[in-house]
Amino acid sequence: MKEPPESKASNSENNLPRIDNSRPINTYLDGAIRLYRLRRWDSALAELLSVDTEKLNPEEKLEQAYYLGLCYTKLEQYDDAVIFLEQVVNSGNDIMRTYQCRLTLAYIYVITNRSKLAEFELKRLASSGFESAQLYTTLAYAALIQKQFKQAVDYYEKALDLDDRNATALNGLGYILVDTGMDIMRGLRCCRKAVDIKPRSPVYLDSLGWAYFKNGELLEARTWLRRALDAAPKAKEIKEHFKIVTGSK
Q: How far apart (Å, rounded) are the C-alpha atoms in residues 220 and 57?
């Protein structure tokens, strides 16, 4: 199963760039930032919007824009998120903040079907030396949804060069190799590794079941796809795979 960089169900700090919790909290923004760190996105957003911007100096306004961008991203209000994240990127005041915001922008562009904009952001990061497994898995997904399969494979390979236990890269690489027929046996091995790392992920269970199906092992395919469907009964792609494998309607 194709896995986006982050889904609604897994909207967490593990997928978006991590915030720097070591920074001192500004007096006017401290309540909002604390709420954000507690993952209370709605409350944090309301607090940020209530701050009197006239009391903020330029650096504090940038801090406000940064957290507004992240809150809107968490709440899936992507057009608003882009406005504030771009403010931080265009300021150029903080290299790490620029990296975080560019990666978040790329994520937004991928899941809103603006893959070329995502590639632009990610390639700028890569050319600046900000390589990471997350960067390459996001680039890979952008290539995948444009059906640039060989390019996607290359990006997943680069992600695994940096982190050979990256479940997202293993699953993505395995699924492409299996689904396109490039290398079914290797794809099956990759899907197995992804499930070993995250055995409860319906996305990875689905990919493993599909890999077994493509390898002609119908009993194994049904077993793993049944587990995937039990874990995510409303997932369209999983249901489609299960119907194909079982011949059900």
A: 61
Q: Report the residue count for the chain.
A: 249
Helix 202-214 × helix 184-197 angle, to 10°: 160
pLDDT tens for the 249 residues of the chain, in order: 766 654 332 333 334 444 444 444 456 788 999 999 999 999 999 999 998 888 888 888 999 999 999 999 999 999 999 999 999 999 877 888 888 888 889 889 888 888 788 888 888 888 877 788 988 898 888 888 888 899 999 999 999 999 999 999 999 999 999 999 999 999 999 999 999 999 999 999 999 999 999 999 999 999 999 999 999 999 999 999 999 999 876
What is the set of domains in the chain, with CATH numbers?
Answer: 1-130 (1.25.40), 148-249 (1.25.40.10)
How far apart CA 23 and CA 118 sit, in angstroms, is 28
pTM of the entire predicted model: 0.71
